[in-house]
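G., the chain you wanted modeled:
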Amino acid sequence: MRRFLPVLSITIAAFFAYSTVLAKEITERALAVKAAQLVEVFALLGAFVTVAMIVAALVSTSTFRIVFAQRMRELALLRAIGATRARLARGLVVEGAVVGLLASIAGVALAAGAGQLVPLAGLPAPGFPLMPALIVVAGSFVLTTLAVLAPAWSAAKVSPLEALRTSAVQDTESRIGGLRWALGILMASGAGVLLVSVVADGLATKKRPAGMTDELLLRTTISGALAFGALIALGPALIAPVLRMISVPLRRSTIGSLAVHGVGGAPRRAASVTAVVALGVSLIIATLTGANTLQGLGKAEMASAYPAELEIIGPVDAAALRAAGLTDVLPYRRTEITVNGRLTMRGTDLDLTKLRDLEDFRVDTGTLADMGPREIVLSTHTASSLGVAAGSHVDVNGVQMTVAATVFGGVPLGSALLHASDVDDDPVGALANGPKERVPAGFEVEELSERRLVQQNRFTTLVAIAVGLLFLTMLIAVVGVGSTTALSVLERTRESGLLRAIGLTRKELGRLITTEAGLYGIVGALIGLALGIPYAWLAIISLGVEWPLQVPVVAVGVVMLVLTALTAGAGLLPARRAARVSPVAALHSIQ
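Predicted structure as tokens:
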């Protein structure tokens, strides 16, 4: 059975990929007209399917490496009786390819079966799209075959003398070769150079030429890929320092100290597993951080676009509106202005200090309080285009004015705010809060609150989909932790028996195994945290978002705790297996 442990991760990935195809077909059948509005959702699904497949391939590579190491004596015996390295490698690759084929077929079959349950929710069944199914099967098969190449060639290099050794696994070396060091440092340096270039160009260029945002995003993506490649290359050398950093409280107990030694005793294996976990964590944390930052900007933009529940358009009588039962009535006037002879825009005399949702605005420079005559408030985007900030002087329709403040997210009802004494026109509308039905007849009314709610719900839905899909990707990484822990238990049967023989109880041995599994999650989470937040910031800079980075500390903490719990839970079954073995039987086993 242990030879087929990679099946689970590939099966989940194939299930995920084909389920996306079925979901799209269901949506197109049920919402034939509105399906076009969900294009970005399925683009998002496609991106996360790609990530899930990559994670599954990494988990498979790690698991194949461990499975082949577990069979080292068997492979050495085959070498001893005449099998060549090439023939042995071909046999292992074929074995991995068969595993990938079975897993991909199983994943597609499970997804197709789940799709037939859709009518229970009142939606039409998706049928069986044959071509996408074949593509998913073929893709998973190729991915698994590629994943097994490196472990197969490495295992095929086993010496025939390994058959005489009592230990089947030799994974205690944390040292890596000079070529691997050079490759890792080269990739890390490349990631750093690209990171610095994105920060320098993104922050320095206020007015971007066409295509610059796409270029910065490409640099960010390449930098992230290089950073992850460096992590894979240098991982075995990083395990010991990271473990020393987090193991201080654990070393106070016998179980914790043994768990740290167990993870650190196989640094290459630990590096492979934690790299997969780190990828998932970094994506989740980067998504949460980016979403939290964009949500802050979105609130400011929506407070600007929809500053009240109602906008009443036309000459208004504020007293009559208040008498009709509306509250927070704010009449406003509008005028066309030209700033510095360059930008023509709409200016209003709306008093921001009287808006109910003022807390959603964030001032970049200056202050909104005590705004007086011949003062103007601009959005950060407009101020950047003009090259001004709070305190700067600008020409407005031939009159010198002072920039009182610049605000993120835009200015309500226009591009600039003026003092009431600087606007001579009559009121052209009003903002108010209350039911639309209370507005007197004869006015055009826009319900801003509904439009604001639609935008908020859409953003929340997209973020929820992204985070949900990333957590599914994390489950594949957790499968990798479980398979690694299970195989570690198998190859350390004698060690477990010795620990039992010197007094360790079954419960203590079980806690030891689950603590080791949890440590994989903690190490991966810390590395993912170290990568996720900087690259979230880099993505914000690349997009040109004019809003400070906001890290959701509580959400990040929850992710770390959930991940630790999941990885520790992945060690429960291996722990039960280890605890059931009697000390005498364990000491007599030859692993």
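DSSP finds 17 helices and eleven strands in the chain.

Shout if anything looks off.
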